[in-house]
Amino acid sequence: xxxxxxxxxxxxxxxxxxxxxxxxxxxxxxxxxxxxxxxxxxxxxxxxxxxxxxxxxxxxxxxxxxxxxxxxxxxxxxxxxxxxxxxxxxxxxxxxxxxxxxxxxxxxxxxxxxxxxxxxxxxxxxxxxxxxxxxxxxxxxxxxxxxxxxxxxxxxxxxxxxxxxxxxxxxxxxxxxxxxxxxxxxxxxxxxxxxxxxxxxxxxxxxxxxxxxxxxxxxxxxxxxxxxxxxxxxxxxxxxxxxxxxxxxx
Length: 250
Hints:
The chain is α/β, with parallel strands linked by helices. Helices cover about 35% and strands about 30% of the residues.
């Protein structure tokens, strides 16, 4: 009997030893410090940290990849990822995203988008509807995205990543830009150019929502729980703590 005890014990315990913790493949569009960027190959920033907190609170390990924004939904649709953050900007709504996704109604992060220009520049009007004769920068999204969102687009639009676009405004290589004011304040402090960029007309609130595939939620037995956890953590101020860490907001 003693000889049989050890093999029997190993057989009984082996499912516990080999069981793998639930994980989620999360893809984040773009690499924009401080919202999402890499440190020694590891994704960091406001959004990766918030998403990691949400899933870890449910006992799920988040594996985050940063990819071009244009590829996020492609990765989701082709089952290369289980979750992402989606933009809701002006006329783009949650309902515009594929039916295979559950988009949590409570946003992870909200930022206000403004028309900005150099403080010494007197040429720019205060409205985004009269920019055709100016060199205007916009973050790398695409003209089609902006048109669908109802944002007027000037003929001389220059598409850049947000940081280079900000630097172009400061150096006056472009006349104006449309970008998140949170990012403007962050870059102004980091680059030591506070006060050199002026806030113009408000363009839109930019909402970022967590979106998870229905199939992953069903397989993990977490239908309804992820979005509930988003609301719970946000109400408890956990997201704001992360935002404070990266953006220094009050």
